[in-house]
Batch of 2 targets.
Target 1
Amino acid sequence: MTEESVASSQDTDLVLVQRTVAGDQRAYGLLVLKYQRRIQRLISRMVRDVDLVEDISQETFVRAYRALHQFRGDAQFYTWLYRIAVNTAKKFLLELKHDPTVAESFLAGDDDDETSWRKNEQTTDEGPESILAAKEIAAVVNAAMDALPPDLKQAIVLREIEGLSYEEIAAAMDCPVGTVRSRIFRAREAISQRVKPLLDKQTGKRW
Amino acid sequence: MDEIKTAAARESVSALVDGDLRGPAAVGALDTLLADPQLVQTWHTYQVVGDVLRSTELAPSRSELAFLDRLEQRLAQEPRSPHVPASERVPGAGEDAALIQRVALDRPAANLAVFRWKMLATAACVALVGVVGLQLWTLGGARETAQMAVARPAAVPSVPDVVVADSAAGTMLRDPRLDELMAAHRQLGGHSALQVPAGFLRNATYEGAGR
Amino acid sequence: MSMRWLARGLVCVLAWSLASAQAGDVSPAGGVETPLNTWLMRVHQAARQSVYTGTFVVSAGGNLASARIWHVCDGAQQLERVETLSGVPRAIFRRNDQVVTFFPLSKVAVAEVRESLGLFPNLLQSSDSSIGDFYRFKVLGTERIAGFDAEVAQLTPVDRMRYGYRVWSEKRTGLIVQLQTLDLDGRVLEQAAFSELHLDAPVNAGKLSRLGSTEGYRVVRPDLQKTSPDAQGWVLNKDVDGFKPMGCYQRPQAAASVAGGNAAGGTMQWVFSDGVATVSLFVEAFDPRRHAREGMTDMGGATHTLTRHINDWWATAVGEVPPATLQAFVLALERKK
């Protein structure tokens, strides 16, 4: 093996993939919890119907699961997953095109014509409560960030938004790596405390 | 879990999110995480936080745990790789533990000694434990095997090379002769209505190394 | 769907009907018509007549293997190419029942004839076809697989001598897109499925055909001779429920064998089937240096092997059946008197 490269969240991805292939399905659940939002956003750019977006997302993760042994780890897991998502969505769309009973409005970006929105009866939109719930979560994260002490805020911004490694952050903030880890952890805890009740509300039950 | 342990566990989750743990530390932390639904929720929350910091569009509008739940029900239909923990490897009497791997799978015919992979022929006798009701496979048979094995020490080269393969499911021993017979079975045994294309792939993982 | 490919599909059907007299590939005219038999025939024909490309994944015993597949029915012949995506690199090229397996790493090409590929219809045709006596057939519903609507059916064994199956067949063509083998408790033992599939995909038969050229490869033709158990000196003193003998073959010297084969007389392969599952009984002369362990081995998934030392002989039973079934075969095998 070559010298240790900078740790990144991709390393965890690879470990989770290996675990899943070795038989531990729970590891796959962690990957799903990590990537489902990005995948759903990606698919919602191709398909308007919210239920269909969810179906295609489910299908994407099922296909990825079956093909996991093909993932070599030499590229980003998300890139690999992304391609599967796009292909899955494309196939769904091709099938829909062949089905005469399906309203055109399923297909986003298919037609800029305003009239394509008329046949909305088959399209499921995101309900107002769902939209509100998402807005609430975003607002709460922002508020929590504003309330953070500067060193915690800086650490988590450098990590989550700038994408720096712990080592790079340690250099930038002139502190040991252990301190970086601790600051990021405390920042996450502070924000999570406010977000978690909202996520629980969505689920409707405590896990 | 008491407060200190909980905080430490959660900090490990935070480190795992960033890929900061590696090697055995990561394995341990992962084991702990996977075994605790509360910690999995923590993982989920941390991931949501990270995504929302990067883009408010990524704030979830529906229950993501419900999504995972539904997905898991579908995945439950997929065949599971039997996960064999190292602790299930049972060493036979007096030989290398690694050579024998006995898997207690929830399979039918539990009254048969079912070996997951063919045993290395040069190993000393392995008693066919737990064989019930089969007159043929008695201790006599096992003893015979032992004698043959013992009588063979110098003849190791004539035993076909058994390939030891490492895979995610553990170290396995492959017998080239069995591989050949499997291939022959595939070649001529295709009298099934349910012939799937590339049904040969069934034995792709325990095929012989080329021909 | 493009008209060109629809036309090709029709040509295939016609060609098959014309060739049927020789190939024996007809609908069960002589056999019993039951929903199960009709369905079996349909899925069987679909695999031969459909035009498709896709990626196929087989999961068995904790291991996954996958391959890309191209299949086209071009006039009166089937062409198929399978390229493994995992394990030892291989490409298989098939023209009807002629199969060539290319191993690019060693530059060896193994050429074989797989007779069994044409025989299923005969099974159904014969008047004592009894697949329905051993499997119950039930349609469960519809599901989407690889982007296609598929009908889900279940084959449930009536006894414990065979495994069950859940089959997803694409609605329009009948092509099997997913197949699960279920153990006696109904749990999935193995699964084979298309992870992606294009039906009626434009496959250039000419191009595909050229991929079957063995130029640059050392061609090996394993020596395989048809024989009979009688000629080999073996009988089954007791039939195994539902399984009928399908053929008997002799592989002489194992010159092409990696593992040393057998000096005296080679290996006999006696093949059985109940229409869905198959079992091979291999018998060779006993060699104490190589034949050390009697017993059952789980090859992963639904396949098991069982070895037995019978006097001067060594028998190995291989099949996608429960261990008890292999036992029944091996215990019934005996030397002709």
Target 2
Amino acid sequence: MYYHLGGMEGVANLTDEELVHLVCTKDQELYREVVHRYQDKLMRYATYLIRDDARATDVVQEAFIKAFINLRSFNPKKKFSSWIYRIVHNEAINNIKKHKREMPLEGDISVEQVAVGSLDEEEGFDKRQLKKMVASCLDRLPLIYSSPLALFYLEGKPYEEISDVLRIPIGTVGTRISRGKRLLATIWTRSEFASYYSLRS
Amino acid sequence: MPKAEKKRDLTKKVMEQIHKGQVKMHPHIYFVIGSLLLGIGLAGAVASTILFINLALFRLRTHAPFGFLRFGEFGLRPFFATFPWLPLFVAAIGFAGAAILLRHYEISYKKGFVGLVVGLLALVLTTGLLLDSAGFNERVGQFRPLGPLYQGPFYQGPFHREPFYQEPFAGEDWVAGEVLKVGDKEIVVSTPAGKEVTIVWDKTTRLPLGSNFAVGDRVQAVGQWQDEDTFVAKGIGLGDMRWRTLDDRVRGIRDYKMPKP
């Protein structure tokens, strides 16, 4: 099936955009490679947002189907990664709304309080610690902060791509990541203190 | 289920639906038509907003509804009758539609949506103002299908009829016109529709800007009709109505300036 491309190795060497172009014009069976390339990343991202494996699987499957149906609308001059992440993001949001799950801010913490008080706490963390914090505390953040944080720290996306995925200005991406980090720092510190004192007692 | 199996399962499920024909790729033309319709929709929404803003500005200029508020409670009904509620409402709907359609474009998040909306608002207001200043409404009002929208004075065809949402320059308890003759406690005015009305007043009539009317002044009066041609005023005031007569249109635009009291 892939003999004209040099077999599976040939297909693996194609960029996402070239692959998508071939799926649209030559062989729809090549979509299998698209799914193969993105399913892990998209499953991870969907799970960060939804926190439920089964629902995340449904969301990603639905996203792949929608992406296939609308594949000819994809502009090959843009990044395919942003495009498909956008679809998964929308599907995840729809799923969350359907199940009416929105994680509120922790207890009495407000963004304003944290923004003023927690800069020192944030500066004490290095990148690895931040990544660990993001991974473990993401479900305690509102979606408005958890999405850009997950994309930046856990998926390694640059601001420009996050802007395309979430359809917000680049400046807003920076602001939300910054505020999200401050919130995380406070949540993390409180949870560390809570663990410390519960161990002691 | 182990992770590797879950992966194969997802790929299998997706490809199965494709093989069975349960999902089909939309053809390219589908998206081309979609883009075209989006563009046409946006252009249409912006154009209709401009048109109705222009119409609202025309109505505000020719009727000066805020002038009626000088007469207190007597001026409320003519104010509501002459204020361009419907054009403004339609313009607001058109503007909201344009803003919603604008969201579908990349520029709406790359350049900041609020800035774009403010820019769009400035565009429709400026274009509406320019259209009105250039005499667009006076010219368009001559076209029969649009005649009713632009009211009597600028519509001369046989299909003349009352506009569906507002009366022209006279109502149940108000009238506006240009002074033709000045008498003792009465003036004869001509509405832009060409109707001559004698407005009479007495010592109880509210005259916020005095009673020194001169020929050529444009006045608004509230009160009641004595008969078809006589209006007993409870309040009369100089109005800032800036309609352009047909003669003005032929000779060139001549804006009416309200005399200072």
